[in-house]
Amino acid sequence: MVTLYRALRQVFSDIRFRLGAPTMPESVSTAVLQNPTRTVIVGLGNYSMPDTRHSVGMRVVDKLAEYYNMQWRRARDCGGDVATTTLDKHSVVVLKPRAFMNVNGESVAKTVRRFQVKPEDVILVHDDLDKPLGSCVLKEGGSARGHNGVRSAISCLNSTAMRRVRVGIGRPAAREKVTSYVLGRFSREEEEVVATMMDRCVDILVKQLRDKSGLQ
Predict the structure, then answer these.
(1) Does pLDDT of 161 surpass 60?
(2) Tell me: the pLDDT tens digits for 164-211?
(3) What is the mean pLDDT of residues 2-12?
């Protein structure tokens, strides 16, 4: 009976989604739909390799979730882990795609549909080879600039309007290949810089959310 109930529930959920009715992952509070505005913040990365340079965006959103005392939950309909909170009447959805970087966009698109937001209400947090280690810069949309996770999100959303928080990881030494560099871990000395950098990234995100919610 339990199995049949779950199967029927999924069927009705799929029908509601195809008809355009709001559907939400069971693990996520439906309270987020009661607020008029929402922001989705995505930490791009390889979910199975969270400690690498390439996944530093996921570490940043972990820090953001900690800042707001948010709890992570598995959201299968979003293709990742989701944490939510509310600031005044503004809902915040934080996502970590459970996928490889190159297909992170599929999870982003699912989450955008589930929470009914526009691409301009999405912030992508990702590593950036062209920024020195320790830097953290907000970018207003634009091209992927060679980043596969951003490229995937642009392709799946058919938009370049998503804001970005570019987290600097610097470039490798001349003899080291980029692939092995981004899939490697920060050194002990670098981790000290990373800790400060992530705090700055969180500050940028908090300011964005306060501006959207009207909080000071």
Answers:
(1) yes
(2) 999 999 999 877 899 999 999 999 999 999 999 999 999 999 999 999
(3) 43
Q: Which of 116, 83, 114, 157 is nearest to 14 (CA)?
A: 114
Q: Is 90 a catalytic residue?
A: no
Tell me how far apart the alpha carbons of residues 153 and 147 are, in angstroms, rounded to a whole number.
10
pTM attached to this predicted model: 0.83
For residues 155 and 83, what is the distance between their CA atoms, to the nearest angstrom? 24
To the nearest 10 degrees (0 to 180), the angle between helices 104-115 and 148-157 is 40
Cα gap 59→61, rounded to integer Å: 6
Domains recognised in the chain with CATH numbers: 2-213 (3.40.50.1470)
> Is the pLDDT reported for residue 86 higher than 50?
yes
6 three-class SS: helix
- Tokens, residue 104: 């992170």
Q: 76: helix, coil or strand?
A: helix
Cα separation of 183 and 108, whole Å? 22
Question: CA geometry: angle at 163 spanning 160 and 167, to 5°?
Answer: 115
Q: Write down the catalytic residue from 54, 90, 126, 147.
A: 54
Tokens of 66: 């900690």
Phi, psi of 50 (to 5 degrees): -70, -20
pLDDT, average across residues 136-165: 96
